[in-house]
Design goal:
Radius of gyration: 17 Å
Distance between the termini: 46 Å
Number of helices: 5
Largest sheet: 4 strands, mixed
CATH superfamily of the largest domain: Aldehyde Dehydrogenase, Chain A, domain 2
Shape: globular
Order of helices and strands: HEHHEEEHEEHEE
CATH architecture of the largest domain: 3-Layer(aba) Sandwich
Length: 202
């Protein structure tokens, strides 16, 4: 449920939307089956309807970018495990909610902000392998950790090279804490009790 909220908020068009979803091999099949059921229940329609959860992207160019990323990934071995139906009334910039499995770190989709309703699933079996791949990115704004193992959670907090981390939650952001990223994900931060100092330089 938290992943659905995090990934499909505003049709995946948020700066903290998870782009790469890593799932342990022990639960991979069960996870993608449950994810497919949850995604298939999302209501896709015009944004003016109160029940709508997924609607059109910000522009035709946005659609073309997402479509290109999905096509490129599939040509390199990714598998489309699920894709919703086209919603005619949403126009040419609508991209249906999609789940890609068998994604790999060398694919363009793993190095680019998707900015669309696409779940790119990466299977892993080693925690060491996982952190090497997760941190192999020029971006570092937000990360999400879903686990019941407290040791794994604190290890992930130490190892992740990102500015914000959500633990078993749908958003890593709160006005009480600084909001900012690492690497190419922005300079400085906002929010939090010290944010006012950014506006006090003279």
């Amino acid at each position: 449920k938290c992943l659905i909220l995090a990934k499909f908020r505003n049709a995946g068009q948020t700066c903290i939307s998870p782009n790469r979803i890593y799932v342990h091999s022990k639960i991979h099949q069960e996870f993608i089956e449950k994810l497919k059921i949850a995604v298939s229940k999302l209501i896709c329609d015009l944004p003016s309807h109160k029940t709508t959860r997924i609607s059109c992207l910000y522009s035709k160019r946005g659609f073309e970018k997402v479509n290109c990323l999905v096509d490129s990934a599939m040509k390199m071995g990714a598998i489309c495990f699920y894709q919703g139906m086209h919603v005619q009334q949403c126009g040419s910039s609508y991209f249906p909610p999609t789940i890609l499995i068998n994604c790999q770190s060398h694919m363009l989709i793993s190095k680019t902000e998707i900015f669309g309703p696409v779940c790119a699933i990466y299977e892993f079996s080693s925690d060491l392998q996982l952190m090497d791949e997760v941190n192999d990115s020029s971006h570092g704004l937000a990360g999400y950790v879903y686990s019941q193992n407290i040791k794994q959670i604190f290890k992930a907090i130490d190892d992740l090279n990102v500015g914000l981390i959500a633990i078993n939650d749908s958003s890593p952001s709160t006005y009480l804490l600084p909001f900012g990223g690492h690497k190419e994900s922005g300079i400085g931060s906002e929010l939090g009790s010290r944010a006012i100092y950014n506006y006090m330089d003279t």
